[in-house]
From TrEMBL:
This is AttH domain-containing protein. The lineage of its organism: Bacteria, Bacillati, Actinomycetota, Actinomycetes, Mycobacteriales. Residues 192-307 form the DUF7064 domain. Residues 151-187 form the DUF7065 domain.
């Protein structure tokens, strides 16, 4: 169970440079095809913070095609995780595990001002009372987390995100659903695991979130094993017990997705997705990540928006490890808004 103590630093006495505590916050402006995020990594053993703030609006394999990127890896770590200001212009406040405030004033007339309020209790993937896929044995729980020791502590939180952003002088209102997370554990940059993180937001009464073990040496449609997930349906949070994910790749990027998740109540939720914006995300120098905003169509016909992430740790996927479905289908770079150049 997640408590107020979990928005404080969880740093153990033996923390070295491999210990990490992270926050992820995303936002969507679907009508403008804008996808943005704030990502924070705190490494107490090194005294350093990574803060990554980005906006994308097209399908491209070139980071140059992003609308805005400000990623800094060696900001000083704050003394208090609940409320702090970083040298890059980010101000952060965790008012509770379900409520956050983010303000950022960057460069080139770019800023954001967001209130984030969870629509359910934090989904603790290690609490059997919340997640039916949780493991009672601590070693098994970490092995089964989907991301190894990096998810030794982890919760997901679907939230209403409200506020405003400005990207290079152009302002937008924000009012969307997005699934955020907070993690803590040993997160080495050698031997980091491939993993997938996929969600779909249809309305405040209907959300699907999922975490996947990912093996990019296998053929398209056979890489993913369900680890954790949930459905928010009519205000009720229901844990997932099984799922399938099939992604057809264009290089490392998704070209088409099929997601099915069965919840603890026995209901199965099926949807198909197409990316409307993607780019390579480099949260760690060792791990380029295929990062996409996905337009979803549910089997009932309703439409939603969400995220697809697949992490490709370089020490694992180099040496001809990637399956040819991924390795031989790399796209050329995008040429403009909505560009999706096929091989």
């Amino acid at each position: 169970m997640i408590t107020a103590d979990h928005i404080k630093f969880q740093t153990p006495p033996n923390a070295d440079h491999q210990w990490a505590e992270t926050y992820w916050f995303g936002l969507y402006i679907p009508e403008e095809n804008i996808y943005g995020w704030v990502y924070l990594v705190f490494r107490a053993g090194s005294g350093a913070t990574t803060c990554d703030i980005e906006f994308i609006d097209r399908c491209s394999s070139e980071m140059f095609d992003a609308r805005y990127i400000d990623i800094q890896h060696h900001l000083n770590i704050p003394a208090d995780l609940q409320k702090f200001t970083l040298a890059n212009g980010l101000q952060f406040e965790a008012r509770s595990p379900r409520e956050y405030r983010l303000d950022y004033v960057g460069v080139d007339d770019t800023e954001l001002h967001l209130d984030v309020e969870g629509i359910h209790e934090p989904y603790d993937i290690h609490d059997p009372a919340i997640d039916p896929m949780a493991r009672a044995d601590r070693g098994q729980a970490i092995e089964h987390s989907g991301f190894g020791t990096a998810y030794a502590g982890h919760f997901d939180l679907t939230a209403r995100v409200r506020g405003s952003i400005s990207i290079r002088g152009k302002s937008y209102d924000v009012d969307c659903l997005a699934t955020n997370d907070h993690s803590w554990g040993f997160r080495p940059e050698r031997g980091m695991r491939p993993m997938g993180y996929v969600n779909a937001h249809f309305s405040e009464d209907y959300v699907v979130q999922s975490i996947w073990e990912f093996d990019p040496s296998k053929a398209d449609g056979k890489q993913h094993i369900f680890k954790h997930g949930y459905v928010v349906r009519e205000g009720k949070l229901v844990g997932g017990v099984a799922g399938t994910l099939s992604i057809v790749h264009r290089g490392i990027y998704p070209a088409a997705l099929e997601l099915s998740l069965t919840d603890e109540a026995g209901d199965t939720h099926r949807m198909s997705g197409t990316p409307s914006a993607y780019n390579v995300w480099v949260p760690y120098g060792c791990t380029p990540t295929a990062h996409a905003m996905v337009r979803w169509q549910h089997s009932t016909g309703i439409e939603g928006v969400g995220t697809s992430m697949e992490a490709f740790p370089l020490d694992t996927v180099t040496g001809d490890y990637l399956h040819e479905d991924i390795r031989l289908s790399s796209p050329t770079h995008g040429t403009g808004p909505g560009s999706t150049v096929l091989p």
